[in-house]
Amino acid sequence: MRILKRLQAALALFAFVGTAAAQQLPIPVADALQRAQIPASATGIYVREVGAGPLLLASNESMPFNPASTMKLVTSDAALELLGPSFTWRTQAYVTGAQVGDVLRGDLYIKGSGDPKLVLENFWLFLRRIRARGIREIRGDLVLDRSAFEEMPYDPSQFDGDPMKPYNVGPDALLLNYKALAFRFTPDEARGAVGVTMDPALAAYPVMAPRLAHGECGDWHARLRPVIDTWGARFAGTYSASCGEKVWYVNPYQMTHTQYFHLAFRRLWADLGGTLKGDVKNGAVPDSARLVAQWDSPALAEVIRDINKYSNNVMARQLLLTIAANELNLPANPERGAAVLRTWLGKKGIDAPELSVENGSGLSRTERISPLTMGRMLEAAFQSPVMPEFMASLPLAGLDGTMRMRLVNQTVAGKAHIKTGLLNEVRNIAGYVQAASGKRYVVVFMINHPNSLQGQEAQDALLQWVYEHG
After folding, report:
1. CA 426, CA 362: separation in Å to the nearest integer?
2. What residues contact 115, with CB distance under 8 A and at least 6 apart?
3. Which end of the chain is more exposed for a tag (fewer CB within 10 A), N or C?
């Protein structure tokens, strides 16, 4: 009995020492946090060898943190497992009425499924397929079926008060070209004018250039004094010659998704020699309609590389809603998407009472996840059949994506697949490190603090430390 008690005491002491060791931050990490004036209490860390290996380091791992863009890991991993890496989005064209020669005496319907990558080049190829069916003139209307996503209010200024930022574009079942406009400004001092071109070109959409000015370039966006709506783009301010040539990417938030689609369609259809006599409106494809063309997006495995390597928020929002639409067979909304993610985690044995999902992209003030939940999900992802596709989507330290400029001269470069997350008062990393020993570790390091911007040194120090000591 005494021997048993001594053994139990020894095991308890071992467990205590192991936990205490796990809580103690490596000296390079602790020193970097001290220099950044970030208290350890504002950080959450979880480091564990994959494959049910030992816990290497943990601190505040059960606390809920704002994940910023590391939330995209949850959304993209769920998508790969639930939809499959070869999943594609379909955009379809239907017609009603009779086709007489090259004239359609009826309506053209375009039905979307939420394709996050229906960029202009792909849309042009899709329209070419419709033209290849011999349709030139449409005497009816263009009807847009966006019923895959629930119609919901969206305020592009809610997140940061800057609705013109492209990352503030809202989701849409027929999202076209990320609903973005690119304006290129070219000063011409010889003419005393500013040239402005817009991409994509829209039908009957005038652009009024700003006046040419001199002096420092400075805050050139504000000096443009832009008004961009359904009637055109007007720059009532000035553009300095010292700015040289610049491109400004804009969310034309005063234009609805339907209006943007309408103007882009008319221009591209006209470029292909087609005409549209009717109007453009929203509506459901009737049962009597005939399918005439279909466009399949790139595979999901390719799409999540764009989402994770370059942290594309608009595409991530589309992905969450796509998961909901396909899993529930209902018009998607963010709440349904969040419910699917929670159920998916639960089936993997991951209880996440702290999880809060607003849009699945991390561009949120309310999303929450703990380092423990994120770490356990990453451990499970590594054992998943779709692990290669998931890993390939993560930025590689020192080489590409949002990690291409970090740790370039460190030995961990090329050995860490890491998703970053950055918001005001938030800086996070999550992913995998292959240590010099050959072992692979899940690494999560979250900082939620006013000084989080200075936290990169500490996070990079942790990645290097795991590489050397794992």
Report:
1. 11
2. 89, 90, 91, 175, 295, 297, 318
3. N
Q: Are strands 226-229 and 211-213 parallel, antiparallel or unpaired?
A: unpaired
Tokens of residue 450, six digits = 């006013």
Residues β-bridged to residue 213: 240
CB 178 within 8 A of CB 318: no
* Interaxial angle between packed helices 334-347 and 71-83, expressed in degrees from 0 to 180 and rounded to the nearest 10: 80
3-class DSSP state for residue 414? coil
Task: Look at strands 142-145 and 108-111 and give their pairing.
Answer: parallel
How far is CA 326 from its chain centroid? 19
Q: 388 Cβ partners below 8 Å, 6+ apart?
A: none
Q: Are 347 and 338 in contact (CB under 8 A)?
A: no
**Separation between Cα atoms, residue 349 and residue 338, nearest integer Å:** 17
Chunk the chain into consecutive blocks of 10 residues (it has 470) and report each block's average pLDDT, rounded to whole numbers: 39 35 81 97 98 93 98 98 98 98 98 98 98 98 98 94 97 98 97 96 96 95 95 97 98 97 97 97 98 98 97 98 98 98 97 97 97 98 97 97 96 98 98 98 98 98 97
Calpha distance 235→103 (Å, rounded): 40
The pTM (predicted TM-score) of the whole model is: 0.93
Question: Could you give the CA distance from residue 459 to residue 407 in angstroms, rounded to a whole number?
Answer: 10
Who contacts 79 (Cβ-Cβ below 8 Å, separation ≥6)? 87, 300, 304, 319, 322, 323
Terminal-to-terminal C-alpha distance of the chain:
39
| Residue 410: half-sphere exposure toward Cβ, Cα within 13 Å | 24
386: helix, strand or coil: coil
Which is nearest to 358 in space by CA: 67, 84, 116? 67
Residue with tokens 């639409």: 325
3-state secondary structure of 179: helix
Distance CA 32, CA 462 (A): 10
| Cβ neighbours of 156 (radius 10 Å) | 18
CA 420/CA 453 separation, integer angstroms: 12
